Amino acid sequence: MTESARFQPETRDDILGWLAGMDSLTRARVAGLLVDRPTIEAVGAARREAVWELSREHGGKGTAALLGVGTAAVHKAVVLHNKAVNARVQG
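Now predict its structure.
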């Protein structure tokens, strides 16, 4: 596993610092992926799935506390995840 594969940023500044440590060509490619709409949508779906998984383990309030967000944000992520799953199943 490479060092970048173990990178687990917790803040925007962590990501920006990680990008700053790259050569220009790599930074341009990686930053391009990060702002690409399909990537943004895929990352959003991955987050919603992870929030759903956390909510199964910790409940809505526990998940909100772990993530430092409100329970409404957890509820919204879970609802959108379930909607996407249902659309795939029916689709």
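Residues 41 and 47 are 10 Å apart (CA to CA).
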